[in-house]
Amino acid sequence: MRSSVTIDAVITWVDGDDPRHIAKREQYGSGKILRADDVAGDTRFNSLGEIFYCVASINRFAPWINKIYIVTDEQDPHLEEFLAKHFPEGHIPVEIVDHKVIFRGYEHCLPTFNSISIESMTWRIPGLSDNFIEFNDDLILAAPVSPEDFFTEDGVVCYGKWHSSLLVRLSRLLKYRFDGSKKVTYKETMCNGAALAGSPARFIMMHHTPKALLKPLYEEFFTQHPESLQENIRHRFRFAGQYNPQEMHYVTLAQHGRCQMRSVDDNLLYLKPKPDVEYVKSKLGGFTRKAGYKFGCFNSLDQTSEQGLKMIIEWIERRIGLKD
Predict the structure, then answer these.
(1) At a CB cut-off of 8 Å and minimum separation 6, what does 292 contact?
(2) What are phi and psi of 279, to 5 degrees?
């Protein structure tokens, strides 16, 4: 891939402890919805400073990134002092992008508390590069990366593998929320995205890594299928019938030979949300020995113990060079 290609980073972020955001969720969501972790439970919105580590890791390990866009809802993580302290010689420019900007023309869908809806619209960020990398704020880069870890000459790199949709559809019949309604699952939304792209029998099982994306593909697809976009973004909270837009993107490219699949086995450090301190200690010990692994996902840190959280934060800060 040509090194001259401009690549931006996009991070979707929310501070769920913000009283204004809590009030919005309570205004638009029923008690049943707000209690369901797969839809709108507090853990989906809690923020423990992950955004700081995500941004710092990009600066540390991907200084070739042109710009970092943080997509949020009338909020600002106030990164200026943090970045000035840890990167005194300069850092990648950061721009806060409000939901109103990417949902222009679709303001009737706001406010939204739905990551699937938001990720369906990030390609509409004004000035965004054609090649961009999308992060959730619970992701970090854990080692130096290059553009070639994400993009090829005419396409993208996807850390995942093909998987049967039939198995996912069958297992869904057995998965219900505590209130008796259907759960919203990551695999199901991927199956829906693959089917939309013309692959109903199999989907690409994406893992919890940053996603390399092409803005022109989104522009072309949603210009040709505007009803698919409108249907996906109208749900303020996660809905089982939605499709994962990244999945649609990857499957479409794969069908044209433009998606290179790579394994996450030697690339991803993944910590499940568990309160067990021994689990945390064991996993972090293993992570330390895997110095070359490029990506880290620390999911739902609010669900770990206070001691476990302290251990995780100290490990992350050492890994990305914020402390010795």
Answers:
(1) 143, 266
(2) -60, -50
On the CB side of 308, CA atoms within 13 Å amount to: 21
CA 316 centroid distance within chain: 18
Write b or e for each residue in 193-213: b if 16 or more Cβ atoms lie within 10 A of its Cβ, otherwise e: bbbbbebeebbbbbbbbbbbb
Identity at 246, one-letter amino acid code = Q
The backbone torsions φ and ψ at residue 54, rounded to the nearest 5 degrees and listed phi first, read -60, -50
- The letter for the amino acid at 298 is F
pLDDT in tens, 259-303: 999 999 999 999 988 889 999 999 999 999 999 999 999 987 878
| Number of helices and strands in the chain (H, E) | 13, 11
pLDDT in tens, 192-242: 999 999 999 999 999 999 999 999 999 999 999 999 999 999 999 998 899
Is the torsion defined by CA of 170, 246, 31, 304 positive or negative? positive
Domain boundaries 7-319, corresponding CATH code: 3.90.550
The three state secondary structure string of 100-157 is: HHHCCCCHHHCCCCCHHHHHCCHHHCCCCCCEEEEEECCEEECCCCCHHHCECCCCEE
Alpha-carbon radius of gyration of the chain: 19
Q: What is the pLDDT of residues 63-84, one digit of tens each?
A: 999 999 999 999 999 999 999 9
- Strand order across the 139-141 sheet: 139-141, 295-298, 268-271
Query: Distance from CA of residue 195 to its chain's centroid?
Result: 21
Token match 């020995």: residue? 289
